[in-house]
Design brief:
Blueprint: E1 7-12, H1 20-33, E2 38-42, H2 48-52, H3 63-68, E3 91-94, H4 103-109, H5 120-126, E4 132-136, H6 145-151, E5 154-159, H7 165-182, E6 188-194, H8 203-215, H9 234-241, H10 246-249, H11 254-283
Parallel strand pairs: 1-4, 1-5, 2-3, 2-4, 5-6
Length: 285
């Protein structure tokens, strides 16, 4: 029986166009090189992760069926051995579709269904099957954002130099605090990944980094920003046009090395948190 520990991670920001989906699929691909298995659940009606991985948005069972319970969680997954979809090794996908627009209608016609709990049972069923489950959320609070925050263990915020990026991070921090207070006390902001950083850094990029370092801190006062920044490069857009991760398109590129470094940082942080929690449990035992 598989007894692996599954870490469920929301990747988000309250602003669109900040590399959220790009970071999700490339971190998962970087983790696959370490032998880790990942499931990406696309909860965005625009289907960014689905399209970026070359999966169709029609004709497949999707995250709508996962959320509504119309299909068992296992039955919504596209594996890495599917002929029609060339997913990276060890990376699986629950695709999105336009049917997510029907979620409001589903909830209105099923008054006994608790909105914020929609993902609890699917995630429970999938724990132990993967090392990581990434919940790729929309760039604004929708009917899929709250269930994701309720079911997750960690949050990674994505940010890139943009005049509205700071406001998006501030909104996301408030949403995380609200989720912790009212629905998921164990939720932890794990990290902020800063991407599309120009070289040399512009004033806007420096301002973003400074804001993240000062505003996104852990209980110990240390910055939660990943030490590794992801640089701006057209190679990412080239890979996206071909519906590939950077590891499928150009695994020797500098940006691939940066995502590998982020994957190592992610695992190190989770390891430290698990050790700290274990020590706390021993103290109060």
């Amino acid at each position: 029986m598989d007894t692996r520990t599954t870490h469920v991670i929301v990747v988000g920001n309250q602003k669109g166009g900040v590399g959220k989906t790009t970071n999700t699929i490339n971190i998962a691909a970087a983790l696959s090189e370490l032998g880790r298995t990942s499931l990406i659940i696309d909860l965005d009606m625009t289907a960014g992760a689905t399209k970026s991985l070359g999966a169709p948005t029609e004709g497949w069972i999707s995250s709508f069926e996962l959320l509504t319970g119309a299909e068992d969680a296992e039955g919504t997954i596209i594996g890495d051995n599917e002929r029609e979809v060339a997913l990276p090794p060890n990376v699986h996908l629950v695709p999105s579709s336009r049917k997510l627009a029907e979620l409001d209608t589903f909830l209105a016609s099923n008054p006994w269904v608790v909105h914020q709990d929609l993902l609890l049972e699917p995630i429970r069923r999938l724990r132990g099957r993967y090392d990581y489950i990434f919940l790729d959320t929309p760039p604004q609070v929708t009917k899929t954002t709250v269930p994701a925050l309720k079911a997750a263990d960690f949050v990674i915020l994505s940010a890139m130099p943009d005049h509205l990026a700071i406001a998006g991070i501030a909104d996301a921090l408030r949403d995380i605090a609200t989720a912790k207070k009212y629905g998921n006390a164990r939720l932890v902001l794990l990290a902020v990944i800063v991407c599309a950083i120009p070289q040399p850094k512009t004033r806007l990029a420096r301002q973003l980094v400074q804001y993240v370092e000062q505003s996104c801190v852990g209980p110990d006062g240390q910055s939660l920003k990943f030490q590794t920044d992801i640089i701006r490069t057209v190679t990412i857009q080239e890979a996206q046009r071909l519906a590939k991760t950077i590891f499928q398109y150009d695994p020797t590129h500098l940006i691939a090395e940066q995502y590998r470094a982020v994957a190592h940082e992610l695992e190190e942080r989770i390891g430290l948190l698990r050790t700290h929690r274990h020590q706390e449990s021993m103290t109060y035992a």
